[in-house]
Design goal:
By secondary structure, the chain is α/β, with parallel strands linked by helices. It is 38% helix and 16% strand. Bound molecules: 4'-deoxy-4'-aminopyridoxal-5'-phosphate (PMP).
């Protein structure tokens, strides 16, 4: 059997499955509900032609790095661009994690930390969040002291709970950690607080970001990380040379130069508050306050609600069987129309 040839780490492996059910309202994957900015669409032909797709792409995405470095207030050398931040998590594990090294991450959190740590053959230490999904920094510090991990991952705002870890707590953890601390800020723009400035003081800090969320470019697959120059050099050793395609580099650069982001983020933050207020009028559900563009809700029977919502044409993310998330659904904030329709459907389903 071909599967006998698999690496030992992969034999027991359960990969990340995406359930892509066609629904009018797609509120499952934490994307924003907006298309490319008008100015980008107007210039699309020129952008694509100038991308010279007969040539390989710029291996280090230099123009993009320059623009991102201005956005983050760091040097271009502090940045690495990836084929989504997914790829960057993989690159971090490939560069630093040996079989049986320890990797620490929160639970529940973004599932790809576990996937890439497993592929690396790492020992995984999952630190549970508190009952209200807040972080307990001391739990991380104790685990760091005990296991001396190569990589510790923090996700803030955390997917799928929307909760955050404070900068003070991140500093406390950084002070105890000799391995790498990766702070995943995929949803940074919806929250507004960052630890990017700390890369000056902590050479073992990596901040992960993405253009898939607030910038609305999930389909282009562009993520980036911000870290010490030395760390970026180490990571470059395992990066595929042409990891980000030329069209993605060119469109991402154009979108970064447009000024739609502020309005879009404001719109989503405003809808987050609106949706929270509306959801709060529904009896019998538990809502977790969120700092991101999604809201986690606990139901008495999440599977039932999930299937009913699909019948209404709304796809959300079902975590009903996931440890630490039993009976929860995660709903991505949509347009006012989508949010109103969601609330109406939920009221009908739960009445
Ligand atoms: N980190 C977190 C916390 C996420 O939620 C996601 C996407 N859901 C990613 C990283 C990966 O994003 P991408 O690969 O699209 O950049």
């Amino acid at each position: 059997m071909i599967s006998d040839l698999l690496r030992e780490e992969i034999k027991r492996f359960k990969n990340y499955e995406v359930y892509n059910i066609e629904c009018k309202y797609k509120m499952d994957a934490n994307e924003i509900p907006f298309k490319l900015p008008e100015t980008t669409i107007e210039n699309l032909q020129e952008i694509v032609c100038n991308a010279n797709v007969n040539r390989y792409p710029d291996p280090v995405s230099m123009k993009l790095k320059k623009r991102l470095s201005e956005y983050c207030g760091v040097l271009p050398e502090n940045i690495m661009v990836g084929n989504g931040s997914d790829e960057l998590i993989h690159i971090i594990m490939n560069a630093f994690v040996d079989v049986n090294d320890y990797v620490i991450y929160p639970m529940p959190s973004f599932s790809m930390y576990k996937v890439y740590a497993q592929i690396a053959g790492a020992n995984r230490i999952e630190i549970s969040l508190n009952d209200d999904y807040s972080y307990d920094a001391d739990k991380f510090i104790n685990a760091i002291k005990k296991y001396n991990p190569k990589v510790t991952i923090l996700c803030t705002p955390n997917n799928p709970t929307g909760t955050v870890i404070s900068k003070e707590d991140i500093i406390k953890i950084l002070k105890h950690n000799h391995g790498l601390t990766v702070v995943d800020e995929a949803y940074y723009e919806f929250y507004g607080e960052t630890v990017v400035d700390l890369i000056k003081d902590y050479e073992n800090l990596i901040v992960l970001r993405t253009l898939s969320k607030a910038y609305g470019l999930a389909g282009l697959r562009v993520g980036y990380l911000v870290a010490n120059v030395e760390t970026v050099k180490c990571l470059s050793m395992v990066k595929s040379p042409y990891n980000v395609n030329s069209i993605s580099q060119a469109i991402a650069l154009n979108v970064l130069e447009s000024d739609v982001i502020k309005n879009r983020v404001e719109y989503i933050k405003n809808e987050r508050q609106y949706l929270l207020n509306e959801l709060n009028t529904i009896q019998g559900i538990k809502i977790y306050p969120s700092n991101a563009n999604f809201i986690l809700i606990k139901f008495n029977n999440a599977d039932y609600v999930y299937n009913k919502l699909i019948k209404c044409g709304i796809l959300v993310r079902n975590f009903s069987k996931d440890p630490g998330l039993y009976e929860t659904l995660r709903i991505t904030i949509g347009t006012r129309e989508a949010n109103n329709y969601l609330v109406k459907c939920l009221k009908e389903i739960l009445q």
